[in-house]
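User: I'm putting together notes for a lab meeting next week and I want to include a structural view of one of the chains we've been expressing. I don't have a solved structure, so I'd like a prediction I can at least talk through. The sequence is below, exactly as it appears in our construct file.
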Amino acid sequence: MKGVVVVAGLILCSAIYAEDIPNRLIDYKAFEDQVAVVGKIRKQRRITEKGFIQMAAKRSTVILDARSTEGFNLLHVKGATHLGLPDFTAEELARIIPSKDTRILIYCNNNFLNEPMAFATKAAPASLNLHTFNALYSYGYRNVYELGPLIDVSKAKIEFEGSLLTRGSWPMASPAAASVQRGLILKSPR
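Assistant: Thanks for the context. Below is the predicted structure for the 190-residue chain, given as structure tokens.
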């Protein structure tokens, strides 16, 4: 009798966890294929902090922050537009980036150190840049560049804005300023 119960259980489990459950709106194979293509493009599109600043200075460039609304409100690259990754749809992307030829700069939590409230470190394979780059490619945006390095926020040349700055609770209210935080004096390297 126990053997019949075990076999019935295995049959039931295989039906519950069947690999071929149809859903035309979820295509893992297409995702895998795209990751391979995007990986090659991404290697050529990772840029330095200096390159990011230079590209960001062009008015036609969109700096896209796909992090949480909370993280964005606390601190983000100056001039960035926010659209959280879970909110990516063709319509929402077209609203903020009408032309698929627009140059888009992306960054994520894993580009910045020493500001855990705004830029909480994620597991490397779960880095938001990886998902953002792939999602933008899925929607037809091909002119995407990714900030490559890991940058200490207290030494960054990139400018930031957000509520941490306005509250005066961030290490540097401006690149040239010094401030006291957590009992330490952090001085600008400039």
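A couple of points you could mention at the meeting. Confidence is low (pLDDT under 50) at residues 172-190. The radius of gyration is 21 Å.

User: Perfect, that's what I needed.
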